[in-house]
Design brief:
The protein has 6 helices and 7 strands. The chain is an alpha+beta fold and 150 residues long. It has one domain: 3-Layer(aba) Sandwich (Aminopeptidase). The chain has a 7-stranded mixed sheet, sandwiched between helices. A hairpin with a 2-residue loop joins strand 2 and strand 3. Helix 1 packs across helix 4.
Length: 150
């Protein structure tokens, strides 16, 4: 099955929002432990208006990954080379969707003339990013900051 990477468009905002929320709730359990307060802090600002604003923002590049004609994942990166999001629909987990998104985002960063990228990893995604060649950066707080030389 072929994964197709496309620019995100406002017409995709609703399924993208649904995917993002499902990914947080169903896949990021190690981060929120299904505790209502932590889950609320992470998911409550994920609104349709917020998603449309992210799609249309000139400060970032947002993409979707399609598999089997369905939106299977989404990702975005800032113009400064920071990966802002990489979410996969729980139904399409372990099919290469996140890897395809990361490859496309890293290619985009290179196209900007940048030679390194950064991101803040969730506990859930940490081993995935390590397997993709990302390195942990020491920080003064509980955040998992990572960097990759491209």
């Amino acid at each position: 099955m072929t994964i197709t990477i496309l620019p995100a468009k406002a017409q995709y905002a609703e399924p993208m929002l649904k995917l993002r929320r499902a990914s947080i709730v169903e896949l990021c359990y190690p981060d929120h432990g299904n505790e209502a307060e932590q889950l609320s802090e992470w998911a409550d600002n994920k609104t349709l208006d917020n998603m449309r604003a992210l799609i249309e923002s000139p400060d970032s590049h947002m993409i979707i990954a399609k598999l089997e004609s369905e939106i299977a994942g989404l990702g975005s990166v800032s113009q400064q080379g920071r990966i802002l999001m990489n979410y996969v629909d729980p139904e399409f987990r372990f099919r290469g969707v996140s890897k395809a998104i990361m490859a496309a985002l890293e290619d985009y960063i290179r196209s900007l003339g940048l030679r390194q990228a950064t991101l803040e990893s969730s506990k859930t995604a940490y081993e995935f990013y390590q397997a993709c060649g990302w390195q942990t950066v020491e920080t003064d707080d509980d955040k998992i900051e990572m960097i990759k030389i491209l």
